Amino acid sequence: MHIDAHTLLIALGVFCLRVTDVSIGTVRVLFTIRGMRVVSMCLGFLESGVFIFAVSRVLGGERHPLTMIAYALGFATGTFVGITLEQWIASGSVLVRIISRNHAIRLKELLASEGFGVTAIAGQGHDGNVLVLFVVAARRKKNLVLKNVQGIDPDAFITVEPVSQAIGGYPFSAPVPPESMKK
């Protein structure tokens, strides 16, 4: 099996095209799940155009095993890159549910002072009464919520799940007022 510069360039091009179209496809699927139809449609158009071009490079002309390997590696790498891109974009909202046996009131006050809307509901846990805290936050602020909770109560039980739609309630994108305005 002979590998010349032309074959190597075609394989590299196919690899890059597959990384591109699969990355776009991964992000498109995640936007589709969130109900963002127009964004998903535009990404689908772009994805299919790149895909058709990549497939035509693999199926057209000389079929070299290196080109087919590049196609498969591009697919795998594109999945990784697509998920990484989506995490970087971090669009949408999450619901953070917190159960803290001994620090729920402190957590509620801290999260509220950080500008998060916090709803507290009395609950019954294994060992007695608990306060369940609900925080709907922008997904890109999820780590801030988790850091605050774990800083006060490393033993808190926390679940995080995506929110497909949130209507009304506390505007979690509002800026935090300065301390002097809170009095």
Structural features:
Alpha-Beta Plaits; 2 domains; 54% helix
Low-confidence stretches: 174-178
Query: Major beta sheet, specifics?
Result: 4 strands, antiparallel
At the first level of CATH, the class of the largest domain is: Alpha Beta
Q: How many independent structural domains?
A: 2
Order of helices and strands: HHHEHEEHE
Helix content: 40-55%
| Mean pLDDT level | 86
Total beta-strand segments: 4
Descriptive account of the structure:
The protein has 183 residues and is of the alpha+beta class. The chain folds into two domains: 5-89; 93-181, Alpha-Beta Plaits. Helices cover 54% and strands 19% of the residues. The chain has five helices and four strands, in the order H-H-H-E-H-E-E-H-E. It has helices spanning 5-33, 37-59, 65-89, 104-113, 142-152; strands spanning 93-100, 118-125, 128-138, 157-163. The protein has a four-stranded antiparallel β-sheet, covered by helices on one side. Strand 2 (118-125) and strand 3 form a beta hairpin. Helix 1 (5-33) runs antiparallel to helix 2 (37-59), helix 1 runs parallel beside helix 3 and helix 4 runs antiparallel to helix 5. The termini are far apart.
